[in-house]
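Before the break, one more example. Copy the sequence into your notebook; we will annotate it together after we see the structure.
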Amino acid sequence: MARPEPEPLAPETDHQTRAPLARAARATKLALAFLTVIPLGRADDAPATEADLVASRFAYPFVGCAVGLLMAALSEALRHVGVSAAVSAFILVAFLAILTGGLHLDGLADTFDGLFLWGGADRRLAVMRDPHIGSHGVSAIALVLLGKYAVLADLNGSGRSLALLGAVAVSRTLILVSAGLARYARPQGTGRLVIEATTRRDALAATFACLALASAVAGSPGLIAGLGALILAFAFTRLAVRRLGGVTGDILGATVELGELAFLVGFSLSLGLR
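Here is what the structure looks like once it is written out:
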């Protein structure tokens, strides 16, 4: 029996076939707007719904890749115009902090102010909400920025671009790893939607994505660096669960910053062992 010819799609059905692509584009746009200071909104844009924000979490790795490519391009441009290693490292660290609006650095400071405070989980969470930065937070920001600067200055060359691409891409993927391994530590908060929606299966997929990204970008040194960043993310999430009862948006931001540094250090060390 001959197969009947398919009927042409109705306009509304054709619209439905495009809907997944439109939703993916919207999710990526929201993720890019959240993780960077790049202005993407328009006056006629519909407000983001909770479902939009939850869906946008899966675009974090793609945003990480995009920002990483931008950082790698800047690194290569500085190298080709002859900017010294030290000055290039400073420009790269400063540009990344500005591009992300200091979002993850703010989370890092809040996390260290609260996480390493004496007292119970409620007191620690209250301190993390305090808009004032404490000595632990200042120290954490200074050490992380200095660590990135030192590694990037030492890596001056094509390896620096690969390290930047891998570090930025993997660290944004670590958000899903940490969010999927713990519950939200507060009754309410900005990170609640993403953390509650992210499952252990999502965390497992993100773990493999981290390793795949790291290996694809920088081969065996990248794979070693990616493993180091993952181990740090697992350990830091476990520490947060022990001290806070779960994770928060600040913990996720701190995981990004620490993951970046861990990847860069791991990459540099692995090159030295070759």
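The radius of gyration is 20 Å. The chain has one domain: 70-273. Try to locate both features in your own notes.
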